[in-house]
Design brief:
Length: 124
């Protein structure tokens, strides 16, 4: 049974930074690409970033390129999202999941199971 637990969200002022964390269990973490997704109020959940199974390749939505960095620690079954230069448009609930996709195909979640997410609110 896949279990995903996100943490690290909060209220931050525009231009600020946050680091999100996710611990995953119930999947072969070391063999699985992982991703971050977010859902803003009234909008569909969208892809934010993904990292390959060994951390050697990363992929980002255009809206976060240059501001967000995804990384992983396979020894701890954890994936991280370092977010900087945050703006109100980044306000959303952030989720992690195993991910599938590539530089030529859209990234999407691997599982229908989601954690509780972590709320990020960017406001002055």
């Amino acid at each position: 049974q896949v279990r995903l637990v996100e943490s690290g969200g909060g209220l931050v002022q525009p231009g600020g930074s946050l680091r999100l964390s996710c611990v995953a269990s119930g999947l072969t973490f070391n063999d699985t690409a992982m991703g971050w997704f977010r859902q803003a109020p009234g909008k569909d959940r969208e892809f934010v970033a993904a990292v390959s199974w060994n951390g050697g390749a990363t992929f980002y939505a255009d809206s976060v390129k240059g501001r967000f960095t995804i990384s992983r620690d396979n020894a701890k079954n954890m994936v991280y999202l370092q977010m900087s230069d945050l703006g109100p448009e980044d306000t959303a609930v952030y989720y992690c999941n195993a991910a599938s996709g590539s530089s030529k195909m859209p990234w999407g979640p691997e599982y229908n199971t989601w954690g509780q997410g972590t709320q990020v609110t960017v406001s002055s």
